[in-house]
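User:
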Amino acid sequence: MTTSQTYKIKGMHCASCAGIIEKTFKKVPGVELAQVNYGTETAKVAFDETKTSPDYLSRTIEPLGYSLIMPTAESMSMSEREHTAHLGLNQSKKDKFTELTDMRTKVLSVIPLAIFSAFIMGWDILAEFKVLAPPVDFLKEFFHHLLPIFATYTLFVVGKPYLLGVYRFLRYGKANMDTLIGIGTSVAFVYSFVLSAFEESLARFVNVEQSYYDVTIIVIAFIALGKYLEARAKVKTVDAIEKLLNLQAKTALVVRDGQEQEVPADQVLVGDLIIIKPGANIPVDGIITAGSSFIDESMVTGESMPVEKSINDKVVAGTMNTSGAFTFKATKVGSETLLAKIIKMVEEAQGSRAPIQALADKISSVFVPIVLVLSVVALAVWLIIGTPYLGFSQALSYGLTSFVGILVIACPCALGLATPTAIIVGVGKGAKEGIL
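Assistant: Predicted structure:
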């Protein structure tokens, strides 16, 4: 029996992550369809229940640093609580804000280090061109010992996700954008550290004055800042659906056993008689059985003027009663209401792929390996061709600069970040303006 389900994914950092997860799922026997969306951090999977299960799918990607967030039993009913849990409007959203706060703390801690490193770098460049006097020996020695401390904190604390990307690449052969950043900054750091540790021994072979601690600091600082801004934008993309959810009435005044009872909206049953008073939101879809009123249906139709409703007219969940009171019979509840279907439609639109995004995902799946190969080729060419003309020291310096530069410049690419983010934000803005 084939079932199709959309799951939230934890641990995604870039568009390449989506490609890795998608390829891993497609290799699992029984999986017929796998579509992973980085913008919404979701995976739509169609699979044969007799051959695999969501738990097994989650286990296949856990070694790579990802996992599926399983929906609860009650989440299948599309109640308000389901949407709240599924969309991350309660605990999930709290977790996201906790993660966002942690990212913000790290960014604020590393930005001053990056500014300091850029200042030192600028001073060296201006001194090289005789615009400024070179730093005195005391300051030069001070900077020489301070930058390694800054770089160590930056790489191993702020840059920890990128180091994990390198580890997973070495162990499982799966590379993503984090791998590029991790390899580039790690090579710069390790090379500089070796020069610092064996300065006297290596002075005869290479230029020990040319270290790359500042590269490690500045690159990780700016990548971390970019990821923080991106994460903050993505947290806001659920606002459109959250506003739709806020249209739902929290409770309903139901007539049961001849008495009026106030019950949670998700406990209303088909056939219940519900009393609506002036100013109340309608909790479920139904047909008026007694009374009449004017109802604001702008949420559904876009019509700003309230519409007159009387006996045998239909009413829709999420619309608001403006004046008068009436009783109606519930005909559709939970996932069957029009509002629930609208919310589901917006969710699916945010999780779907526009043709341009499908193309971007296809390219990004081979983007990382190509960049890795290009960076290694650039380093090898400098060492092989440059050494006879420039000497090993100068050729190695240029080669490392090219190696790190190619890896780092490829990381915050528009292909991997801007396309999925633009799609998700665009759909959210449309829903907020009533374009469904």
